[in-house]
Amino acid sequence: MADAPPDLPPDAADSLTQRLRAARRTRQHEKILQDKEIERRAVEAAPVVATGAGVRFLEQTGALFSFGAEFWKRFWRRPFEGRELLNQMDEVGTRSFVLTGVVGFAIGIVLAMQSRGTLARFGAESFLPSMLALSVFKEIGPVLTSLVLAGRLGAGMGAELGSMRVTEQIDALEVAALKPFHYLVVTRVLACMIMFPVMTLLTDFLAMAGGYLEAVTADGMALQVFIATAFDSMRFVDVIVDTGKTSLFGFIVGIVSCYMGYTVRGGTREVGRAAMQAVVLSSLLILVADVVVVRISLMLFGDISDAA
Amino acid sequence: MTDAPPADDRDAVPAHERVTGYAPPPPDDVVVELRDVHKSFGPKHILRGVSLAVPRGTSAVVLGGSGTGKSVLTKHVVGLLRPDRGEVWVLGERMDLMTDDQLDRKRTRIGYLFQGGALFDSMTVYENMRFFLDRLTTLSREEKDDLIQESLEDVNLPDKGPQYPAELSGGQKKRIGLARTLILRPDIILYDEPTTGLDPVSVRVVSELIAKLRDERGISSIAITHDLLAAEIITDAAHFLFEGRIVASGSLAEVRRADHPAVQEFFKGTEAYGHV
């Protein structure tokens, strides 16, 4: 045990300096004491309301929002967990690719098959690629990819962080000064925000490939014709905005799932519940956010009729 | 780090009553001191004024039944929880008034052994221990390996490096958890139920390990437990926690003789096992 640095006597607090330093009342101490006082007053002043479901819902919502705020406060600060971020991006991206890829491809084929009949009634079969591209790039691709990923990742992250919390692994990181929020939460949320748009684009292209496969088998449409018609009525801004919004969805999935897992209290049953709630809540929030984003993007960029 | 005070110094520790405002720090030979610590979770008032001092190089044991706030108490020492009221002095500074960064700096000198060992189950034992060193130090690969091997030998499990936590028994997990704590050379170690759920032989092994660390390295410690065999081996000073207050303190024998009904009940309940 001779590895204590020689120039630094192990907490030799016997010097007057150190004792006074420890005892002084710094501004930071004042602030913490004030916060505590405010908290205490708030608790005392709070009327004893019935702690019904409504109150709990509001509490949960507030806690979720402050968890999200915590992320924005911390993600640009040290320590940067580069390697762990890559790990998580691998988890969100590479290991989810089979799932999102199959979903995209299948949806592309099915969408083409289903629409062909309807379009044929109006003699508008030639619009099939165009319709396909619009629905896939603007709505089905982003939302479906995000929902599928929410299911896969929400459950995974909720359960993983939840069991780490229950077995005190998160506390162990905390007491070893390893900043678990950075290591566990920031990396996961960032990975989601980065990878969701990438996965969405891949899904979009696979869906278009599926649609083309259907078009070829049904009436032997040439690839050039398919591509030219497909992207005829598309605007660049549509692709950007509608793909970019999945970054927001990724944020939602990451924050909600990490929050659910990170704040688990109790035992294994709560871990399961946290995983389930993570999926349900992030799926719901994705759909709500989608409505808002689409409305805003229509206000800002107009719809495709302006471009045509 | 091995400057344990002579045993009779322990009486010199002042017993603190209610402390308000800014009191002077505890004497230098007191590594952990709680003064009138209160903590509530919502309507539940868990700690109702706990005062407790741990002199350097000694082991304190906090006894008490389940749900009396023993874990809450140790979590205050390491800054995982902040008291609603009262002061928490660790190594001459107040933990309850620190920013997160200051806390982190302090925490590298405090070890915490969790109930289940809290090993990261996605990593092998070796990686578990490397993880701390990788993140907190700039040691070379060989230096790290030496430290890891040394720590594993300290807990008598030198060849468990390549195994995953799931392959270890409960007692081994705790010992590996202890090795992972020891690797950072803490001045203080907090033990959360170090022997709960272990067979009597493992209880003895783990407890003797804790006593050995105190005697050979002068590591001060607080152990919370309701295991009297462990308490017997570890204790320098015992404290009995009941309803958020320390109702009896002193040597284990003194606590046993205390006439508080909860204490009597506790010792009566455990005598049947023939411990102590």
Protein model, in words:
The complex is a heterodimer of chains A (308) and B (276). Chain A has 308 residues and is mainly α. Helix content of chain A is 79%, strand content 0%. In chain A, helix 5 packs parallel to helix 8, helix 6 (128-166) runs antiparallel to helix 8 (180-219) and helix 8 crosses helix 10. The longest helix of chain A has 40 residues, at 180-219. Chain A starts with 15 loop residues before the first helix and ends with a helix. Residues 1-20 of chain B have low confidence and may be disordered. Chain B has a 6-stranded mixed sheet, with helices on both faces. With 276 residues, chain B is α/β, with parallel strands linked by helices. In chain B, strand 1 and strand 2 (44-55) form a beta hairpin. The chains are: A mainly alpha (308), B alpha/beta (276). The interface between A and B is large, with 34 and 44 residues.
Short description:
The complex is a heterodimer of chains A (308) and B (276). Chain A is mainly α and 308 residues long.
SSE diagram, text form:
The complex is a heterodimer of chains A (308) and B (276).
Chain A: H1 16-23, H2 27-45, H3 53-74, H4 82-92, H5 97-121, H6 128-166, H7 169-175, H8 180-219, H9 223-230, H10 236-262, H11 268-301, H12 304-307
Helix pairs in contact in A: 4-8, 5-6, 5-8, 6-8, 6-9, 6-10, 6-11, 8-10, 10-11
Chain B: E1 30-41, E2 44-55, E3 59-63, H1 70-77, E4 85-90, E5 93-94, H2 100-107, E6 110-113, H3 125-136, H4 141-154, H5 170-182, E7 188-192, H6 200-217, E8 220-224, H7 228-234, E9 237-242, E10 245-250, H8 252-257, H9 261-271
Parallel strand pairs in B: 3-8, 3-9, 6-7, 7-8
Antiparallel strand pairs in B: 1-2, 1-4, 4-5, 9-10
Helix pairs in contact in B: 4-5, 6-7
Feature tags:
heterodimer, A: 308 residues, mainly alpha, 12 helices, disordered N terminus, B: 276 residues, alpha/beta, 6-stranded mixed β-sheet, 4-stranded antiparallel β-sheet, 9 helices, 10 strands, 35% helix, globular
